[in-house]
């Protein structure tokens, strides 16, 4: 049985070999598949999960979340030690406010807000703004949100313009689903916390009737403090 910070301590993620960064998702869920309590993911995982999460962050160049995850609670996308090089914090918006200064805890960390062209969000001066083309599959940008952003364009520019070779995505479920459905994710890290929530909260992917099943390959499994830490590789689609 390992401590949380030891689980991925010797992890070495590959560098990108194409136009996109090497993309990994890290999520925590209850045994019955819930990812939040009262809308907050922090109600699921324990100390060991938080330790493993920060270890994963130390292995990447940037950490990305969707706007809904930011709005739900006050959080950090960085490392505990301010003396360490902090990953770029990325918030992917669509429509509505981005409370970066209110909800995002940063220490010596650069923040990038990615918005669809024509978005009217007010973004605090502490964040750089990157305007991205809208998803060509949602004409007019759709109702707003993650689906209205061209994620392939975003990933290409993160690698080319921001030197992001390895990208960690920490949700939420809508962003996860969009990335997986477009075959943009290389690995999934999933922590199963020893709790039941029975709250009807979203799973790690938001529902989509048209979603094509994806098969995974288990790369490692660890336990710590009754938590189960799973690492999967995304199998190529046919």
Looking at this protein, list some descriptive labels.
single chain, 238 residues, alpha/beta, Dihydrofolate Reductase, subunit A, 9-stranded mixed beta sheet, two-stranded parallel ribbon, 6 helices, globular
Helices and strands in order, then pairings?
Blueprint: H1 4-7, E1 22-30, H2 47-57, E2 62-66, H3 67-72, E3 75-76, E4 88-92, H4 100-103, E5 104-105, E6 111-116, E7 127-132, H5 151-162, E8 166-169, H6 173-181, E9 187-193, E10 216-224, E11 227-234
Parallel strand pairs: 1-8, 1-9, 2-4, 2-8, 3-5, 4-6, 6-7
Antiparallel strand pairs: 9-11, 10-11
Explain how this protein is built.
It contains six helices and eleven strands. With 238 residues, the protein is of the alpha/beta class. The chain has a single domain (4-204), classed as 3-Layer(aba) Sandwich (Dihydrofolate Reductase, subunit A), CATH 3.40.430.
Give a short overview.
The chain is of the alpha/beta class and 238 residues long. Helices cover 19% and strands 26% of the residues.
């Amino acid at each position: 049985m390992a401590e949380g910070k030891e689980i991925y301590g010797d992890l070495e993620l590959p560098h990108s070999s194409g136009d996109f960064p090497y993309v990994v998702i890290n999520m925590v869920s209850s045994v019955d598949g819930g990812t939040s309590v009262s809308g907050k993911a922090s109600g699921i995982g324990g100390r060991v999960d938080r330790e493993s999460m920060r270890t994963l962050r130390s292995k990447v160049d940037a950490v990305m979340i969707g706007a809904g995850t930011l709005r739900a609670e006050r959080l950090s996308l960085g490392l505990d030690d301010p003396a360490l090089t902090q990953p770029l914090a990325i918030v992917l918006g669509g429509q509505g406010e981005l409370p970066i200064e209110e909800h995002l805890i940063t220490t010596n960390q650069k923040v990038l807000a990615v918005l669809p062209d024509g978005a009217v969000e007010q973004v605090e001066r502490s964040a750089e703004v990157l305007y991205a083309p809208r998803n060509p599959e949602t004409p007019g940008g759709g109702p707003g949100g993650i689906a209205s952003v061209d994620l392939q364009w975003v990933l290409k520019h993160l690698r080319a313009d921001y030197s992001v070779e390895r990208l960690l995505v920490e949700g939420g479920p809508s962003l996860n689903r969009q990335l997986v459905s477009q075959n943009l994710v290389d690995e999934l890290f999933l922590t199963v916390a020893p709790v039941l929530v029975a709250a009807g909260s979203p799973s790690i992917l938001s529902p989509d009737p048209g979603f094509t099943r994806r098969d995974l390959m288990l790369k490692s499994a660890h336990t710590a403090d009754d938590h189960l830490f799973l690492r999967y590789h995304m199998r190529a689609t046919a």
